[in-house]
Amino acid sequence: METKLRRLEGARPDPEILREAGEIIKKGGLVAFPTETVYGLGGDALNPMASQKIYAAKGRPSDNPLIVHIARKADLYEIASEVSEQAEKLIERFWPGPLTLIFQKKDKVPRETTGGLSTVAVRMPGDQVASAFIQAAGGFVAAPSANVSGRPSTTTAAHVMEDLNGRIEMVLDGGQAVIGLESTIVDVSVPEPVILRPGFITRQMLEETVGKMDVDKAIISPDSGIRPKAPGMKYRHYAPRAELTVVEGDMAAVVERINALVGECQEAGGQAGILAARESESLYPAGMVKCVGSRMEEGQIARHLYEVLREFDETDVTRIYSESFADDSVGTAIMNRLLKAAGHKVIKV
Ligand code: AMP
Ligand code: MG
């Protein structure tokens, strides 16, 4: 199949392109589209065949549910059977935006879309292209991240083409995703809301709105064998081709250890890559250094993390050593994705 690539400007998206993209979805086809978090691989959320196609195009296990994207708050009540008072407060503050909420689903959402679950994940993106596309597509677009399963999520249309060219009908290019990491997920289908996946909307921001909130234990101690409540969190996502190790500790000691590891790697005939912050990138004399952004601006690091991991995939490095980042605020999400990419291989110095 030929994948059409269409550029769409955020402020005034071309109505003809939107119509064309919307028609593909209504006919059961697939369109990748930009959002503020990462690119999504969209299909009609109410059409079980479309959801099956999404799983096939990504090579994704079918027990890993999709997120239903909407463009109008009112549409939530079409697909969620119960919306708690706390959910209403979160929606009021964070929608449209990078927050996904889990609700009990209505019958019209097929189990193919929810990975067999009786709950449905819903998000209303803030990105203007995403919103216009969802409306053109009929209002309910199921989408996981637009990457082949097991590769880093995509933050540009070029990355989507790398992974999905020939497997889907269309890619909408809306430029680089501003946030760069997947949405925060909160389960509001239970009496006490729980954070299932950290993201740009931090625990502190959520707690300011609805009071104290728990984090799914499987996220805090991922090796403990506890089954995560967000099924996707159990898979080894975001994996670069080279083996990735995160080195954690005092900055001077981290730099020293990474330099030693690079030396060992090269002596053994390997090629070493280093993922570093702007502040320390010049401290590595050997190996291929890639800068992910400044520690003073976590947003930059979030935006570039997947891009840098993909860039390493284009090289012949056999090992990647990464600095670690502050584990608070957006840093919690950055470290969550980085540690998953590393399969939790961490050296503490
Ligand atoms: P992705 O956008 O690729 O990160 O995929 C969406 C993720 O949302 C899945 O991997 C799940 O972890 C999560 N998710 C979707 N629906 C549900 C649900 N009903 N309950 C819990 N987690 C969900
Ligand atoms: Mg994903």
Could you explain how this protein is built, in words?
With about 350 residues, this protein is of the alpha/beta class. The protein has two domains: about 170 residues, Alpha-Beta Complex (DHBP synthase); about 110 residues, Rossmann fold. Helix content is about 30%, strand content about 20%. It has eleven helices and 16 strands. The strands form two sheets. Strands 1-8-2-3-7-4-6-5-9-10-11 form an eleven-stranded mixed sheet, sandwiched between helices. β9 and β10 form a beta hairpin. The structure holds adenosine monophosphate and magnesium ion (MG). The site of magnesium ion has 4 residues, from loops.
The CATH superfamily label of the largest domain reads: DHBP synthase
> In total, how many beta strands?
16
CATH architecture of the largest domain, please?
Alpha-Beta Complex
Q: State the CATH class of the largest domain.
A: Alpha Beta
Q: What radius of gyration results from the CA coordinates?
A: 20 Å
**What small molecules does this complex bind?**
adenosine monophosphate, magnesium ion
In which range does the helix fraction lie?
A: 25-40%
Helix tally equals: 11
> What is the CATH topology assignment of the largest domain?
DHBP synthase
Summed over residues and divided by their number, the pLDDT gives a mean of: 94
The largest pleated sheet is described as: 11 strands, mixed
Class derived from helix and strand content: alpha/beta
Number of structural units classed as domains:
2
Which strand order spans the largest sheet, edge to edge or round the barrel? 1-8-2-3-7-4-6-5-9-10-11
Secondary-structure element string? EHEEHEHHEEHEHEEEHEHEHEEHEHE
How large is the share of residues in beta strands? Answer: 15-25%
Uncertain regions spanning at least 5 consecutive residues: none
